[in-house]
Amino acid sequence: MNTITLESDRLSVVFSSPGAFYAGSRFDWTGFITDITLDGKHTFCVDESLIPGVGTGGRGLCNEFGIHEPIGYDEAQIGECFPKLGIGLLKRRAPEEYRFWEPYEITPALVEVITKENRVSFISNSPECNGYSAVLRKDFTVEHNLMTVAYSLTNTGKKTLSTTEYIHNFVNIDGKGVGPHTLLSFSFALHGEAVPEVFTVYENTIGFKAIPDQEFYWAPKGYEGEKACSWTLLDKETGVGLKESCDFPPLRVGIWGKAHVISPELFIDIHVNPGETLTWTRSYEFFVQK
Q: What are the two backbone dihedrals, phi and then psi, of residue 107, each rounded to the nearest 5 degrees?
């Protein structure tokens, strides 16, 4: 079985079985969501790139550990392995710094998948590597118009796990792309430098002056001191939208996109000592405003 589908009275969420749709070295193989449909007609997921072979293979909602903070990379010699949570072990191939967009040789982790009614659990056991090992569990539930993912990361090794995690949300509401109809808001006021030309920023809200003609990225400030965080994406013309809420203080925030896709990103700081377990939760609400 290459896919797993969770359904409620309003939502249909399609997961790829680990390594089926995506088998690259960037995104977590567990809980890789390829399609979400609300009320049988509103869609939210899109490919990272519309050009075959371009990009890193992302689609829909897929998370990543250690985009800039790879566990054990600096300790590994060329030809030796380092862990990438949710994937397994990657082999260091060059003296340069870790580059998330480049492919690495993979030794996959063992993954157990448990499905029950409106719930699916992915349990990934990372092989021991230079003193690092971990058990990552992700429990997804779907109820009405809400999807929740509860994370549990247990350090079963001898060294501390220090990294980050975020979900790369490759979102396109109903295939309409990004433009003046798009409104993105956060639970905190936004400020910072190097604001993309296409953005209109007012307090905690981002609008778009036009359809973006090039890739954009912004790392706003304003989240400092927040104990939890959220963002909401809305199609102003139809009222269709989604909201991601997190129960942790954000380490940093990113907003990436192109004309066909937008990805708000909320990062968590991960620091787990040997024998300890860290838990956190993300929830997604899909809605149609009346």
A: -110, 105
